[in-house]
Amino acid sequence: MAFNVLVLGGGFAGLTAARRLERKLPHQAAKVTLVNDVNFMLYTPLLPGAAGGTLEPRHVVVPLREELRSTRLLLGHVTSADPSRKVVHVHSAGGAKEELSYDQLLVALGSTSRTLPIPGLKEHAIGFKTLSEAIALRNRVVHTMEQAEHVEDDDARRALLSYVVVGAGYAGLEGLAEMQDFASDVVDLYPRCRMTGLRFTLVEARERVMGEIPAQLAEYATAELRRRGIEVRTSTTVKQVTADSLELSSGEVIPTRTVCWTAGVKPHPVVSRLGLPLTDSGRIDADRFCQVAGFSDVWAVGDAAAIPDPARRGEPSPPTAQHALRQAKVAADNLAGALGNGRRRPFRYRTLGVFVDMGQHQAVASTVGIRWRGFPAWFLARSYHLALMPGTKRKLRLVVDWTVGLVFGRDASELGQLGHPPGLDRSNVPSIDEAPSLHDSSSLHERSAGGTPSD
């Protein structure tokens, strides 16, 4: 009788684990099922490229069915689990509620954006965690320029052309750099916007940007941002967000219609409903073998798991793609070993390098103790991501996109209506009172995002 192996999540960790299990376990010995809410893996390090228009959005995702051979893919949302009965409850894409049994369970549900109780944050800010949010941000930049080109009030125009990113980690710094690079490319198409000028601000609560990289590289990254005219506010927090402004802890009020929130992540909310032990941070308590505490048949990896970091004794591994990939391989090997195929081994990975792509052929990087900056770092960063992207077809598409971008620049189309077609009856024209106002922030957000981004 074949064992039932259940993998929850189809991100970096989930896909890597499923592919590893396909190689480790004979198809006759185990049936592997992967549950995910979408049928693709998002390559998150390339999300800024999709937002900045250097990459086609479809080229930063990996269709799961193309990479999985024998694994069964089930589209749906995990709602809860009962480890005592060895079952997981899933709300499938077809609307049915299913109860999936397992002999071995691997949890790789990842994380979502972490928000704080800041007035107006949830109502007026946009995240940068999903593909829909990245495209919404790009559309927002284009749409605010379109609006600003026809606004007569100078203060309103300046607010429309002011963009604030909160959080100076990987997502925040790379996202802001790409967004500013994109806006600088297309602003020449908007004469009044070019005369007024664009304003970009990066806000960080810590003393410096990019706490994950050496201080010298962080200083270089900050200097590069300021050279481009980007304002960097460190040791500063957000006090309040409104429809047309952002108030900082320093008392400064920045008139803006666009606030992007990238200040950290938290485990996926469903993790707390799986009946597994959690740490104080809400991550699943797992040991160095990626095994969940108190369970011989449950494993956890990635952002949702607090696996000990070999490089920092007593600390959990950071929620990065590099760690998730290595943890997934270890967990898959140990799971296969628990079924009689292989030996148990611990997670020993230590970060060998970091890459921060800042657009305009600029980046900072650190590899095996060697620090890089400028064009060499940029080339290394793109080469690294190209090497990690699964599938030859996907790699070639990235190369084509990057090459085309170098030759022809970026497209300035605002495509917020993609996937949201109007009704067949288009005879009704909105009246003046019904038309969205140029100062209506909620209308702007909905149009830019093409709807509310999902988690």
Please give a structural write-up.
The protein is α/β, with parallel strands linked by helices and 455 residues long. The protein folds into 3 domains: 3-113 and 266-338, FAD/NAD(P)-binding domain (3-Layer(bba) Sandwich); 115-263, FAD/NAD(P)-binding domain (3-Layer(bba) Sandwich), CATH 3.50.50; 352-409, no CATH class. 32% of the residues lie in helices and 22% in strands. It contains 13 helices and 24 strands. It has helices spanning 12-24, 47-52, 64-67, 121-124, 131-148, 154-160, 170-186, 191-196, 215-227, 321-338, 375-388, 392-408, 441-449, and strands at residues 3-8, 30-36, 40-42, 61-63, 72-82, 87-92, 97-101, 104-107, 111-113, 126-127, 162-166, 199-203, 231-233, 238-241, 245-248, 253-255, 258-261, 265-267, 284-285, 298-300, 305-306, 353-357, 363-367, 370-373. The strands form 7 sheets. A 7-stranded mixed beta sheet has the order 7-6-5-2-1-8-20, covered by helices on one side. A 5-stranded parallel beta sheet has the order 10-17-11-12-13. Helix 1 packs parallel to helix 10 (321-338) and helix 5 (131-148) packs antiparallel against helix 6 (154-160).
